[in-house]
Amino acid sequence: MKLTNNKRNAFTLMELILAVSIISLLTVVAFANVNEQTKIQKANRAVQQSAWAIKQARHYARMKGVKTELIFDTGSTVYTINADGQDITNNSRMDALSGVLPEGVKVLNNACGNIYFDVDGSPVDSVGDVILNDCTIALGYDSNSQKNLTLKAISGNIIYEK
Hints:
single chain, alpha+beta, minor pseudopilin epsh fold, about 20% strand
């Protein structure tokens, strides 16, 4: 009489396909999450960089006694800082972080228009009248990864999401 051993010593093809499918699905989900987190980090960096540039422009206006202007055009990936009609964004005495937003980040919405600071650092409009309303600039991606930066009226302080 012959005894047969029905023990399995290997996986079936169906089990291997199922395992590979699950691993693939988990990899895709993890990659999407990492990609979204990267976008959020870049949007955060863009807001911090822009807030710093606005503070620098305000300080420059007070220090040099000249009116400064910041230009954040909607859809743009760069910003410009002008003083007395000259672009000072890359001025060696002005650490405005080059005026280039992190890769892929752009100005999504700018309710502020051009931002001006008069000689004492107060936020003003293009004709020199004090700004009376807060305004917001949205930076980020066309997807959900966006952050807002708010310029406070009268004080010129900057508030942004972290």
